[in-house]
């Protein structure tokens, strides 16, 4: 039986990815509202809150840092928590490096700011290089715009908005991550990586400080890469 032909590196992006990127951006923007409220309540100015979202641009780390400050923790503790959660982005950079290997330096520098959970997951779910790059930019820009717009609105409006949980909007975030994970779970390697990551996190939750289990769960990718044969593209 003949092997399946390799994926076309210049295959166009499936149209549903554009819709999914926008929906995901909106879902993240909802939590930008919550971050803006939390940050200003913790003592940051509107300007400081917005600059943090523009430059740091990793929601989990931002929430962790502001949460530590809000509960009276030191700046060193806040920075440590933020860096711990941001460590996973280094692995995402490695995963995206082949896609941008031929891109000009300036383009790669801009792309580095958009290497986050959502953009990486959406990109790596695509088959060809062109589709991966387009999915990365669409998702990264959508999340960046909506996250920062939400941060600004939340910081300016303050407590008048309240938290997303009050309206049941907190379900949007996990639903978005589920949508990101589903394409990967269709492959054997994706299922192995997911199962190993869940097992690692569950073992560490009662033993390790907050933030460590989710970072360590990324190690679940190694069994998938090392021991699961690569499936031919269909």
Feature tags:
single chain; 234 residues; mainly alpha; 2 domains; 12 helices; 68% helix; globular
Describe this structure in words.
This protein is mainly α. The protein folds into two domains: about 15-170, no CATH class; about 185-234, no CATH class. The protein is about 70% helix and about 0% strand. It contains twelve helices and no strands. The protein has helices at about 15-40, 45-55, 60-70, 75-85, 90-95, 105-115, 115-125, 130-155, 170-185, 190-205, 210-215, 220-225. Helix 1 runs parallel beside helix 8, helix 2 (about 45-55) packs antiparallel against helix 8 (about 130-155) and helix 5 runs parallel beside helix 7 (about 115-125). The radius of gyration is 19 Å and the shape is globular. The protein starts with 14 loop residues before the first helix and ends in a 7-residue tail after the last helix. Mean pLDDT is about 80; it is low at about 1-5.
* Overall strand count: 0
How would you spell out the order of helices and strands? HHHHHHHHHHHH
Low-confidence stretches: 1-5
Total number of helices: 12
User: What is the structural class?
Assistant: mainly alpha
For the residues shown, what is the average pLDDT? Answer: 81
| Terminal residue distance | 14 Å
Radius of gyration over all CA atoms, rounded: 19 Å
Biggest sheet features: none
Give the fraction of residues assigned to helices: 55-70%
- What is the count of structural domains? 2
Strand-residue proportion: under 5%
Shape descriptor reads: globular
């Amino acid at each position: 039986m003949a092997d399946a032909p390799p994926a076309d590196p210049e295959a166009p992006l499936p149209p549903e990815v554009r819709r999914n990127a926008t929906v995901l951006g909106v879902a993240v923007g909802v939590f930008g509202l919550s971050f803006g409220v939390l940050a200003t309540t913790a003592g940051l100015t509107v300007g400081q809150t917005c600059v943090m979202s523009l430059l740091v641009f990793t929601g989990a780390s931002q929430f962790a840092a502001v949460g530590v400050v809000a509960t009276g923790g030191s700046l060193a503790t806040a920075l440590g928590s933020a860096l711990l959660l941001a460590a996973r982005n280094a692995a995402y950079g490695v995963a995206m490096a082949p896609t941008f290997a031929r891109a000009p330096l300036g383009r790669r520098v801009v792309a580095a700011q958009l290497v986050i959970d959502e953009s990486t997951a959406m990109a790596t779910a695509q088959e060809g290089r062109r589709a991966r790059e387009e999915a990365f930019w669409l998702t990264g820009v959508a999340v960046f715009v909506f996250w920062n717009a939400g941060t600004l609105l939340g910081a300016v409006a303050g407590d008048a908005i309240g938290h997303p949980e009050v309206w049941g909007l907190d379900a949007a975030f996990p639903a978005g991550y589920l949508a990101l994970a589903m394409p990967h779970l269709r492959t054997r390697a994706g299922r192995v990586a997911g199962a190993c990551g869940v097992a690692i996190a569950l073992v560490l939750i009662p033993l390790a400080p907050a933030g460590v289990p989710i970072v360590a769960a990324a190690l679940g990718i190694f069994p998938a890469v090392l021991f699961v044969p690569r499936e031919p593209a269909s």
